[in-house]
UniProtKB/TrEMBL annotation:
<feature type="domain" description="Glycosyl transferase family 1">
    <location>
        <begin position="185"/>
        <end position="341"/>
    </location>
</feature>
<dbReference type="GO" id="GO:0009103">
    <property type="term" value="P:lipopolysaccharide biosynthetic process"/>
</dbReference>
<keyword id="KW-0808">Transferase</keyword>
<dbReference type="Pfam" id="PF00534">
    <property type="entry name" value="Glycos_transf_1"/>
</dbReference>
<dbReference type="InterPro" id="IPR001296">
    <property type="entry name" value="Glyco_trans_1"/>
</dbReference>
<dbReference type="GO" id="GO:0016757">
    <property type="term" value="F:glycosyltransferase activity"/>
</dbReference>
<protein>
    <submittedName>
        <fullName>Glycosyltransferase</fullName>
    </submittedName>
</protein>
């Protein structure tokens, strides 16, 4: 069977959609089932990303032009048995059966102010269209599956759950000299609480910052954040007003291959997000032996299992208490570390790849 895959999300600098695509395609290739995977890229710089796949460049950088024009035309010229869309939507005019991965339905939760108005309007239409048009849907959590069934006209038998998992790079041993060099380059010479992920209003970082301000004097532990620097002005104002300029560090985008070094340097992972389709940083931290404190919201309890301290995402007081506990209580940290290892082991990309392939085979008939 020949399977087309829209690989446009490789253009993203970082984030869950890109991690999902990379890890899933590598796992599908590792199954060695004899099916041909045909990856469609918007730029030649991505050639060679997936050894063993057929890679085709459609030199169109605009995302709508790539999805709506270039990709359907390419699939008519080179027919495939099924097409896979990894970013919650598919365009019209796809000439073969399709499977769409539903990552989250945050566009239907306007009170969280997650996206621009134009993007929200487009994606609400696109997600509902995809639920009607796709032969199969795969949701990355039970929470997301519930949202799909609640907010679209998808049939329960049409939607399978295919959880995410840690990339194998987070399980690889880390060289002590490489770890020391990473910490030195980034001036990470003290214990720190890590936030790993993109930056947007739904990530609830003002609550994390306010809670950290209340407990910062209790322990010599800084706050370090990854993610884009676009949300600089408002966040930097909050940091200055809290008097934490010397205690809060923003690293921007950390290269993917260095993320295990960042996690293993961290004292704690804090993940206060109000809304997540999955919450992959929780598993990445657990795989690296980092105690986790996260919001008791949406899919996060499902993902974290017993390996995280769950906190009301709306309560600064609860976060301040939780951060102080997890930073200072050695027994709690060890318990969360042990539970985290066990919880992370429940999720594997091999299992996800098999379930995704099953959906593609069923879609192709």
């Amino acid at each position: 069977m020949r399977i087309a895959i829209n690989a446009r999300t490789l253009e993203y600098p970082s984030g869950g959609p890109k991690e999902y695509l990379i890890s899933l395609v590598n796992a599908l290739l590792a199954l060695n089932t004899g099916h041909e995977l045909v990856l469609y890229y918007p730029h030649a710089s991505h050639l060679g990303t997936f050894a063993g796949a057929t890679e085709i460049v459609l030199p169109v950088r605009n995302r709508l032009a790539f999805d709506w024009l270039a990709l359907p035309l390419a699939l008519r010229r080179r027919p495939c048995d099924a097409a896979f869309f990894p970013s919650s939507n598919m365009p019209p005019a796809i000439p073969c059966p399709a499977v769409v991965a539903m990552l989250d339905l945050g566009y239907f939760h306007p009170t969280l102010s997650m996206y621009r108005a134009a993007d929200t309007a487009y994606m609400r239409w696109a997600i509902r269209y995809s639920a009607r048009r796709a032969k199969r849907l795969v949701a990355i959590s039970e929470y997301t599956r519930h949202d799909v069934l609640r907010l679209t006209k998808a049939r329960p038998t049409q939607v399978a759950v295919t959880h995410l998992a840690c990339d194998p790079l987070y399980h690889a041993p880390v060289d002590a000299s490489a770890l020391a060099g990473f910490r030195r380059r980034h001036n990470l010479d003290r214990h720190f609480i890590l936030y790993s992920g993109n930056i947007s209003p739904r990530k609830n970082l003002p609550t994390l910052l306010a809670a950290y301000a209340r407990m910062a004097d209790l322990a010599p532990c800084d706050l370090v954040l990854t993610g884009g620097l676009a949300w600089s002005e408002d966040f930097d104002v909050l940091v200055r007003e809290a008097g934490l300029t010397d205690r809060v560090r923003r690293l921007g985008h950390v290269p993917r291959h260095e993320m295990p070094l960042l996690y293993r340097s961290a004292h704690v992972l804090a993940f206060p997000s109000l809304f997540e389709g999955f919450g992959l940083p929780i598993l990445e931290a657990q795989a690296c032996g980092v105690p986790v404190i996260c919001a008791d919201a949406t899919s996060l309890p499902e993902v974290a299992g017993h390996g995280a301290l769950l906190v009301d995402p709306h309560s600064v007081d609860a976060w301040a208490v939780g951060l102080a506990r997890i930073v200072t209580d050695h027994a709690l940290r060890q318990a969360l570390r042990d539970e985290g290892y066990a919880n992370e082991a429940r999720f594997t990309w091999e299992r996800t790849a098999v379930a995704t392939l099953d959906a593609l085979i069923a879609a192709a008939g």
